Amino acid sequence: MAKASPLRIKTIGEFHKLRGLPAPEHPLISLVDYAQTKRSPGEGTSGLVFDFYLVSVKRGMAGRMSYGQQEYDFDGNHNERVMFFMSPGQLLKLDAATHDPGKRSGWMLLIHPDFLWNTSLAKNIGRYEYFDYKVNEALFLFEKEEAVLRSIVENIRQEYQGNIDSFSQSIMVSQIETLLNYSERFYQRQFITRKKSSHQVLEQMESLLDAYFDTDTVSEKGLPAVHDIADQLHVSVSYLGSLLKSLTGMNTQQHIHEKLIQKAKEKLSTTRLSVGEIAYELGFEHSQSFSKLFKNKTSMSPLEFRNSFN
């Protein structure tokens, strides 16, 4: 039996109709109250794909949500405020319990890309990496943080419900950008307040890299790819990069290179292997590429580093 295709929602108006809501007051932007939404019987279990941005805060969620290839279970804690982000083209699945109006509340801001057309945010929205995070990397908000975000989205609502004029779009886009900047701040806070789990991810990555470089894998396959490391840690590439940047100031690729240089230094100082042999063992096809990277990271050539021990 063929697997059902996800339901694609192209416009905000289509989403309103799917959820049993009145037609949106603006065709390209809308703030939705979760308590007013209904699950469509035609929605099925194949999930939804939106052609617009979605920013949401949910309280008291219960059930399972599938986002991309990951799942997340919510326990229905009414004090838990979960925020997540979706960009156009991403797949979202929710089970029936997640849609029960008696078990959750919150809001959802829908923004069609056309609304951002010809604005600086249209060019810069890609820098907000949390749009690529998986749902198990959701942002858990404090009450005060949610209040800040709620006031911003209410400003957006009031603006599009008022008399649209030549200032309306720029004002709303400015409010959206403020919302995204606060969200970025709160994510950075979460990396700190959830330091234990964050450091566990860092420790797991270090163990993965040690195992990779201590076997023949690196000479056979070359340097590990960032997406492979993220997959093994069960996090998204963007989330891993942001977490590492917050904890160490380096992104994932830089960590891979640091581990490489560490292993190279060990081999240069404790073995008689030639630079070419070491380069091969560390996954380089050409020793020149290895030497160039080594000097870039240490300000010394491999031979200069080895001679410093003599």
Helix content: 40-55%
Number of helices, counting only DSSP H or I runs of 4 residues or more: 12
Rg (C-alpha, Å): 24 Å
Shape: elongated
Strand arrangement in the largest pleated sheet: 1-3-8-5-6
As a percent range, the share of strand residues is: 15-25%
Please describe the biggest sheet, giving its number of strands, its sense, and whether it closes into a barrel. 5 strands, mixed
Low-confidence spans: 66-76
H and E string: EHEEEEEEEEHEHHHHHHHHHH
Average pLDDT across residues? Answer: 83
Spatial gap, N to C terminus:
69 Å
Question: Which class best fits the helix and strand makeup?
Answer: alpha+beta
What is the tally of beta strands?
10
Features:
single chain; 310 residues; alpha+beta; 5-stranded mixed sheet; 5-stranded antiparallel sheet; 47% helix
Model description:
This protein is of the alpha+beta class and 310 residues long. Helix content is 47%, strand content 16%. It has 12 helices and 10 strands. A 5-stranded mixed β-sheet has the order 1-3-8-5-6. The chain has a 5-stranded antiparallel β-sheet with strand order 2-9-4-7-10, with helices on one face. A hairpin with a 2-residue loop joins strand 5 and strand 6. The longest helix is centred in the middle third of the chain and has 26 residues, at 168-193. The model is unreliable at 66-76 (pLDDT under 50).
Short recap of the structure:
This protein has 310 residues and is α+β, with helices and mostly antiparallel strands.
